[in-house]
Amino acid sequence: MNKYKSQLEDLPNELLSEIFKNLDARDLFRAFNNLNNRFNQLIQSFQHLQLFFHMDVSNVLKTNDEIFSFYVYTLIVNPWINFNLQNFSNVRRLRLNNPLPKVLEQLQPNVMPYLEHLSVFYTYNMYEMVLLHEKVFSNRFLNLKSCELYEKQTLITIPHWTQSPSIYIFKTEFIDSALYKIILSACPNLYFLKFLLYSSNRIPTNIPLHKNLKHMIIELREFDWFYDDDIISGFLKFVPNLEQLEIHRRNYSQHVREYIEYYDWLATIINIRLPLLRKFFFNFHLSKDENLIGCIDENMIIKIKSDFSNVHKGQYKAQLIIDRE
């Protein structure tokens, strides 16, 4: 009988890697870091696996945790968490939910030089956010590829901007015509843009054609459909190479039947502005309010779908998505 007892260290590196990937990253470093040279090399190679850390409580890193933080590539921080951003110098993906001002102030290019994907969700106006806008749109983060800046109250501000050629994806809340012009000018290689059309908008002018933007998502509140369509047409005028367009429109008005009775669902605008369009998605979100449900009944929905199909018979794929929220 073989009395030899197998040990964890007898397993090959490939199997150990599969096991370690199922462990909490911090526990992994606490248990195996500095155990021996082999485990050190194995764990340190995990920097290519983009270790994930979700911070949900205020954290003061200890010595062994500082070693762990060096290998964190994805960092998500819950609202109002106090921590030192400088401990995560190798982060590639950063998501901050309502960050404290002193935390946001730490977000500097020299602190996170490898940052590629940034998401910041904030509820209140902060001066630190104004400074962040300037850093993002002035090419301070040289490796930044995608950026999400969501704020629920006002438009983002860009006091001084140059260009950020590395940004390919940008998502935000409110955009007006002036900000639209700035974003297109500041991001010449932008491929994907998502935004919410600001209510007090006007048709943009004097914007150089942006030839690299291929995918756009526009969300609209419940305002004047036909006036908003004029704004959309003005926005699309400067992105002639767009290949995919997605519209989100909501109904919170009892007058919605008046809007859609003779509506062409942007077909005319698309035919004029977007000769290269390949996919068009129109998301029509209906209210669950009992007073509004009756405005668009099942018969009306059938008619809407029929009208949509009739006007979008072209070279691009078109899909109407209707739901209640």
TrEMBL record:
Residue ranges of domain F-box in the record: 5-55
Gene3D superfamilies associated with the record: Ribonuclease Inhibitor
PROSITE patterns linked to this entry: FBOX
Protein's UniProt name: F-box domain-containing protein
Native source organism of the sequence: Rotaria sordida
Lineage: Eukaryota, Metazoa, Spiralia, Gnathifera, Rotifera
